[in-house]
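Journal club side-thread
Mid-discussion, someone asked how the predicted structure for our own chain would compare to the paper's figures. Pasting it here so we can look after the session.
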Amino acid sequence: MSMRITNSIMNNNTKNNININKLNEDKQNTMIATGQKITRPSDDPVVAIRALRLNSNISQSNQYYDKNIPDADAWLKITETALTQTDTVLAKIKESLTQGASDDNTAEDRMNILADLRGMRDQIYASGNADYADRTVFTGYRTGESLTFTAPEKRLYSIKEEFTADSISQIKYISGDFDVDKTGSDLTTPITQQDINENTLYRMRLAYDNLTYPQTVELKYNDGAEQTVTLNVVEFADDAAYAKPATGATLIAETGEIILSDDLRDALQNPDTKDISLEYDKEKWQKNDLRPEHYFQCSDKSADPADPTKYIDYNKFDPEGNPLDHFQNQKISYEISFNQTIVINTNANQVYTHDICRDVDELIAATQAVVDAETKLDELKKMAENTDRYSEAEITELKNRVVAMTKERDLRADKMQSMFSKGLTTFDFYAERNNLALTEAGSTRKRVELTKERMQEQRSSFKELADSNININLTDAAIDLSNAQLALEAAQMAAGKVAKQTLLNYI
């Protein structure tokens, strides 16, 4: 059984065939005009989906290659430069320490050492303020704050500092020192070498000196039970301040030292003792002082010391109320490739610790004490030789004082040389710590460079895949267009012939 084909059916089929050929020609023409295989996702869903994925990869690789990687590399470069400068400063300090440990130094040599130490002291933390695009690189998440105070400032902080048994050190204190009265009016009080003594003390040194005075300060620790010791706070460092307390401890506000009694030292050095801490106030800050919020749990009470609601609280706690280590070990991470994240920052507590400047300050003080003692000794010798001005009894007293001052000078010189010798080991540690941070920054930067090379290759590969996925071959497309045009012309010619035939042609 066959279906009857009418002229109407033939005409409709002819029109449909012509339209299909026109659509095919239009499609080929559009592809040549746009240079792409599809104009809408429905043209080829597979090509469309692959194009979306490849474009997403290209966009991500551009972000990594053009922004994240250069930003990370610049940050690390700034860090390397700052640490290299710090290494130079530490090396110069060690040179001064080597010279200071010598027994052959003259008064002029010591003055030169003092000048060098003071100059290097001001430079130690300067590199720690290095910034990249107005973001300081050593301050963790607080990139908008400098590491140090950049100018003298009056700001009241309450600082909680924590200690261990290793925080206790032995020091030598020279007591009985005296001033020289050049007028010679005060020669009635006998001074002998027995008045000059070297005392061995145990202390804990705080991160800061020149603390606010007066204040109530409590040392807390746990030896199986919570213990609290109220310290005797004195303002200035003198013989009375450095006298070993019978019990408890003395806090010297001027120097930031805690002088321990034997009983308290034994308690703190007990292996069972833990959680040693002290909370104290400091208001007057000098240029290059390290800002405490980068190192300690603290609060700024400057707005109104009497109103805790107005404090700027830098203490952070977890849901259980435990203090978080928010001021240290803050990691700034950059995603520099697909599923590859690196930490680019070095935290200040890894390199720029308070001990560095505190050690330098004590070396400066010890050297200055020797210089002062030598100056006073020279003045006393000149006075003792002036027999025309002083009586025989006064000359005898001056000679006794020359002997006493000679003892003081020798004791201070021995103490200074010991500190310089010990300082060489200490600053070797500081330099090694700085070099470790420098090595880590350099190693991380090398990883960034390798990742950049890989991302460049990946980005080129993604672009090639994207191009081959959606872009046409112009030669093939031109041939296809020509074929479509021929097919359309043939269909139109056939349609012309079919349209001339009617039923009358067969009668």
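Post-session note: The first strand starts at residue 131 and ends at 132.
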